[in-house]
Amino acid sequence: MYTKKQYPGAVELCFAHEFIRIEAWGRNALRVRIGPNANFPQGLGALEAAPLSGLGATSGASMGPLADTSDPTEATGNSEPSSVTEIPGYDRPEEVFSNGRISVVANLDGGTGIARFLLDFHKDGESILREAPEHFWWPGAHGIYPGFGGHEVHQCFASDPAERFYGMGQHSYDFLDHKGIVSDLIQRNGEVSIPFVLSDKGYGFLWNNPSVGRVEFAKESTRWVGQGSEWIDYWVCVGDTPKEILEAYADAVGHAPRIPQWALGLWQSKLRYTSQEELMEVAREYKRRGLPLSVIVTDFIHWPAMGEWRFDPSEYPDPEAMMAELEEMGTKLMVSVWPTVSPLAETDAEIRAKGLLVGTEAGVEYHQTFRDKGMDRPLPVAFYDPTNPSAREYVWNKLKNNYFDLGVRVFWLDACEPELNPGHPYNLRFYAGSGLNVSNLYPRENARMIWEGMREQGEDEFLSLCRSAWAGQAKYGSAVWSGDIAPTWEALFTQVRAGQSIGISGIPWWTSDIGGFHGGDPSDPAYQELFARWFEFGTFCPLMRVHGHREPREDVASENPGGPNEIWSYGEEVADICSRYILLRETLRPYLTRVMDEASERGIPPMRALFLEFPEDERCWSWDGEFFLGPDLLVSPITEAGARSVRVYLPQGARWRQLLIAPSCGDEGQEATASYMLGETFEGGSELTIDAPLECIPLFIRENTDLDSWLTDNYRHSKERKNGIRI
Questions:
Q1: Which residue of 54, 141, 417, 653 has the fewest C-beta atoms within 10 A of its own C-beta?
Q2: Active site annotation includes 417
Q3: 390-432 pLDDT, tens per residue?
Q4: CATH number of 261-338+387-416+441-599
């Protein structure tokens, strides 16, 4: 028996104990859910509520554009069907469901002797994405099977060998295009899994399933696999340009809030400042040098024990005075918050008694070994469970009482994958479900804890720095950094791609550890070169942040855990270079503000792959060593040791003016003038070799834009008035 149920804005198809629900979900977008029954789980994925636009939809025998008429609440599946059709057998014509420019054709295909639904998605009547059976006989294109740790779901689509895929979070790949990659759907330090892809075929696809699994971008097919889940849930949208697709995606999963102005400048950090006085001396030195400092960080082990979430009074005797002095300097304090609870913490017994920890399927509730303060060796630690509302409330109350009430407004959410060592999600049990089924939600729900708490306190500015993320996390004010990466040229090379990818994946605020994390000797000339080049690149990332565990390194819990990491630690030449780029970043604040506002309002990331601005230029889809900061500033980082020139491509369809760093910020004893100069103009569509001495990263501004005019006027007036920042 074949059954079709028609709902306002949705249709449900059932055959042979397989249920398929297709819903209008935003403008030119559809959501598909498939399962063994119609009781689809609510609230686990990123599609928590239907967007407010584009919910006009019909089902019938023909395709075509539809009006925006439906109530968005009607697409949630809570209404009664408007009609029910039951048909014996399965030799049926195709069913068609449309929402604006996207349509799906559902065929109950009996051509092989096995009846099974096959879905074919169309954009303006042309097929762009179609299901393909894993085998001509068995199984179908989507299936639910017994698997490791529960069930396992498969979803398979055909794919053109030439199709290109972009997004998927942040990974240490040497390229943007994911075609040919098998990507694990699991969170790890430095590897952020966000299951959204933008195809060059004109569609976006979200695998709305937080389970552990993988996606296989094979030559002729794409297969999504989720473990521990009994339902398939995905979302497809279409658009004429990549920007249109990203706008629809942001509408579906939530927009980032407006970024605070204080976040746009330099963030200073190291592992770790071991006292209040050490931290304050760094902030004071930036002030003495006349260099604006937006954020300074107190990293982990500033606490008495993990899970107490408070300053150690032996290291930070007067946090209120510290906060007051920093506020006077115009500098915010960011405080490291780990989700771990030590057995030595004063909160350990209470958290366990209240049932607020991540549980296990077998064994005790310990998920990592770590040498915390007061430990003579690593001991097991546990994680709190942010999928539990009571646990989020408990941790926030600690943060409020011990940090927020002192003036702290910026939190660094470290180790939030969570970082299991040893362990695997299959052995975890969360409030929201099994580890295999929901563990990818951990970073999002952890960020939600800060957002909920800050909002309850009446705050309207949100920005937390997170080491991991999942789809929809941007709406909680999450910025992401790329984790504990190596201090190498190879790592810098991958960061250029990682920042572009995570922006496509829906996280606009991104940064890396300038200089890398694991090591690096500030006195080594070879490393000084790398640091200078990384600093230049970091200037044009959405967030500009210095961090690292520098040589000489000792155990992280020691009294002297690592070497210095301030710009003056790298010698006068590097300090001078860094100073100029700090000033250039400040000069660009009006432009940065406009770019960040666009990210919040439209979902277009500040750090942009070339094809986001020039989709008609075929070379922009494969030229991934450059990126745009906003629409008009083209950046070509130097990622090779000793390089003093680089091959750049200037997109076709515009003229490009070179932006040069000034040879100095001003003579000694004089005020600095503009930290940049305007250079030669080049035609777009050309590939050029550009000189790049150590102090210069190749930069180009799109001619005849607001940025071009403003930089020209600002430079002329600055030279006339000589009223820059004294350094």
A1: 653
A2: yes
A3: 999 999 999 999 999 999 999 999 999 999 887 789 999 999 9
A4: 3.20.20.80
